Amino acid sequence: MTSAQSGAPSPESEDARDPLRPAREKVIASIVLAAGASSRMGTPKALLDYRGETFLNRLIRVLGAVTDPVIVVLGYHAAEIRAGLRGAAPSNARFVINPNPERGQLSSLQTGVAALPPDTQGFAFIPMDCPAVREETVARLARAYLARDPEMLLVIPRRGENRGHPVFAARAIAEEILALQPGAQARDVIHRHIPHTEYVDVDDRGILTDVDDPAAYRHLLESLP
Question: What is the pTM of this model?
Answer without folding.
Answer: 0.88
